[in-house]
């Protein structure tokens, strides 16, 4: 069962990242590759058979494995781990790569798989190195990098920006130069406050690195990791010089992982609730037998016809019998007009678990709204319209 769940989650994640421009792979606890997208295989100039089913040591070699090992072990302990280093690739040559390891947990809360995401940060690394060179060398590089290089004065006014800004934001350089960052609308209010805090650090001669949400010209939201430091002229700090790198793909991958783990938590909550119902039924049956009485399980009582409408459930042959005990509880409370929050409080479960039960109920009963759910409950004698 656990293996099937693992394989299904692996298939879902593979579909999510197969066409990503970033290399992705998945490694299991045995340090064996379970998945690698096309970008990862092209980067290593390897076939799927040369990667899938092989160990990290086999694929990366001894030197690469020893470099990755402490971060891989950290991730297997349940933490996100990151490192960056220079690597040599058959076609791309010498590249500076950021390597991110994300844990993927099983139903017992243990790390089952490690998602590996690589990002080619060579241009950003070179751009950052260019910042430490003379202004003349910096300007030669300025027009060539794909990352966005820009400068600000201490009024947060954009004094220069590389043409690559159009790819990230949709704005041309002439639309931005001379305007303050707040006037452009590129950053949200929260991020503007963080930028103001970074400005104080730059004024003090320190470097900064922050992740910002960027509102593009067409209204879409991008993510940028901005690193920078003081801009010096004639020995005086006159502003900041920054490099913005697009990390939207990485953020989308992190969100996909978060959703997968949230779905797993929902399934665990539902399973725990169902197990509690089974346990309650078992205890009730034991008490009944010891007292010489007959006992019906909650599943059996769900299909017994108890009388005319309004006096008990009339669903001997209805889809109601497919619902679990907890789903029936949720159905009754929602049909009686309880909110999701109130239902959660009454049953001692989370609102997210109530929502999951509600989705399962409407799917099993082929209903499409709370109104239809209420009509169904009244028709089946589960509840009444009047109190």
Please describe what this structure looks like.
With 387 residues, the protein is an alpha+beta fold. It folds into three domains: 2-120, 2-Layer Sandwich (Beta-Lactamase), CATH 3.30.450.20; 124-249, Beta-Lactamase; 269-379, Arc Repressor Mutant, subunit A. It contains 15 helices and ten strands. The protein has helices at residues 2-17, 38-44, 56-76, 122-131, 135-142, 165-169, 173-176, 181-184, 189-203, 248-290, 298-301, 325-335, 340-347, 351-365, 370-379, and strands at 24-28, 33-36, 81-89, 93-105, 111-120, 148-153, 158-161, 208-215, 221-233, 236-246. The strands form two sheets. It has a five-stranded antiparallel sheet, sandwiched between helices. A hairpin with a 5-residue loop joins strand 8 (208-215) and strand 9 (221-233). The longest helix has 43 residues, at 248-290.
């Amino acid at each position: 069962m656990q293996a099937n769940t693992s394989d299904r989650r692996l298939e879902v994640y593979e579909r999510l990242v197969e066409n990503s421009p970033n290399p992705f792979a998945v490694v299991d606890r045995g340090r064996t590759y379970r998945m690698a997208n096309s970008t990862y295989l092209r980067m290593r100039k390897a076939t799927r058979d040369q990667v899938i089913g092989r160990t990290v040591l086999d694929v990366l070699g001894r030197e690469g494995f020893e470099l990755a090992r402490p971060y891989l072990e950290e991730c297997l302990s349940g933490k996100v781990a990151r490192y960056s280093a220079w690597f040599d690739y058959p076609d791309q040559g010498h590249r500076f790569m950021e390597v991110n390891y994300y844990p993927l947990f099983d139903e017992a809360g243990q790390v089952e798989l490690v998602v590996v995401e690589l990002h080619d940060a060579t241009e950003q690394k070179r751009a950052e190195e260019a910042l430490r060179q003379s202004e003349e060398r910096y300007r030669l590089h300025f027009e060539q990098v794909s990352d966005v290089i820009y400068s600000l004065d201490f009024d947060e006014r954009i004094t220069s920006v590389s043409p690559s800004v159009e790819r990230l934001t949709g704005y041309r350089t002439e639309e931005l130069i001379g305007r303050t960052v707040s006037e452009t609308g590129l950053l949200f209010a929260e991020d503007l406050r963080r930028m103001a805090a970074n400005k104080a650090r730059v004024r003090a001669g320190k470097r900064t690195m922050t992740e910002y949400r960027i509102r593009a010209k067409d209204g879409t939201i991008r993510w940028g990791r901005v690193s920078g430091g003081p801009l010096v002229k004639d020995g005086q700090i006159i502003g900041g010089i920054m490099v913005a790198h697009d990390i939207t793909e990485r953020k989308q991958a992190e969100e996909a992982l978060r959703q997968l783990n949230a779905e797993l938590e929902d399934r665990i909550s539902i399973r725990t609730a169902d197990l509690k119902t089974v346990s309650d039924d078992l205890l009730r049956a034991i008490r009944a037998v010891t007292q010489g009485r007959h006992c019906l399980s909650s599943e059996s009582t769900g299909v017994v016809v108890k009388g005319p409408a309004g006096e008990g459930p009339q669903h001997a042959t209805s889809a109601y019998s497919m619902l679990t005990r907890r789903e029936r509880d949720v159905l009754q409370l929602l049909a009686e007009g309880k909110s999701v929050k109130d239902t959660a409080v009454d049953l001692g479960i989370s609102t997210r678990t109530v929502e999951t039960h509600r989705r399962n109920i409407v799917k099993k009963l082929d209903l499409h709204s709370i109104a239809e759910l209420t009509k169904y409950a009244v028709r089946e004698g589960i509840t009444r319209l009047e109190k």
